[in-house]
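REQUEST FORM: STRUCTURE PREDICTION
Request ID: SP-0412
Submitted by: Lab K.M.
Chain count: 1
Length (residues): 204
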Amino acid sequence: MNSARAQTTGRARLPPEVRRAQILDAAEALLQVHGGLPLPLDELGRAAGISKALIYAYFPDQHALANAVLSRRMEAMMAAGLAQAAAEPDLTAAALACADLYFRDVAAAGPVVHIVLRDPFMAGRVDAETERQRDRISRRLARAARRDLRLSAKEAVAALSLMTTIPEEAGRMAKAGDLSLERGRELTARLIGSSLRALSPEDG
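STATUS: Completed
RESULT:
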């Protein structure tokens, strides 16, 4: 009876963690459609198969929703070894490993990290722990770039920011089906490697 009633209403009782993941999946997809925040909650509810009121039961406001999306993506990359990759003593090894992890995340979920972090809607509202994770990764790579490429602090940050667009754009293309995962990873590695070689100071 209960099963039949759930099928009739189209709203089964799901465990909270499953329902939360369902909302986040829908939010990630809509972020790529709209390209920014805040998201239209009516549309998000339809995509997740729930009411707008139920969204508020899990996320009290859109900042909380965006932070949950961002945190999930960062946690996935950290679990895949992002911190260890950034800690590689060799700059090229660290940059290639980090770029590959970011490419794979964008190819799987889209550029949601970029969208959330860069959106003016989130200015001053990004979760502090997520910001600390990002800053730790950035600082490690920037220090290595200053050391190995002999760049100033601002130049190192700028160079790394520009190189981040390589795995991001390749990941977008792979997610859209315009590039295979294998080819996307290969191109990302080659372009990151050539960028680092072009920036390397000449000996002597």
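NOTES: Residues 1-10 have pLDDT under 50 and may be disordered.
Reviewed by: T.R.
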